[in-house]
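Input/output pair, single chain:
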Amino acid sequence: MTSFSCFYELHIIQRRCTEYLLANLAETYWTQGRLREAEELEMQVMKISKSVLGEEHRDTLRSIANLQWYQDARYKKSETISRSWIANMWRRGKERLHRE
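Output:
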């Protein structure tokens, strides 16, 4: 084994470990409700996985699915907040009309 191939293998191992750690941290953030940070980390995981393993590898596909899950969760949370805000503003507007 040449020194280059040994270095290359160590580089791949290091990237896979980084990918694994980032994915675990993203999941932790997601369970804490830190959806934006989870999404950002999962985006990094997907990029690493694509570059190291290729687009069709099962781990790459899993990271893409996780990223979609985080984006959906963040969208639903934003939608809930928006609906709550709109309902609150609607209620306030109706209360003002009744007072006047």
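The two ends are 85 Å apart (CA to CA). Residues 58-99 form the longest helix (42 residues).
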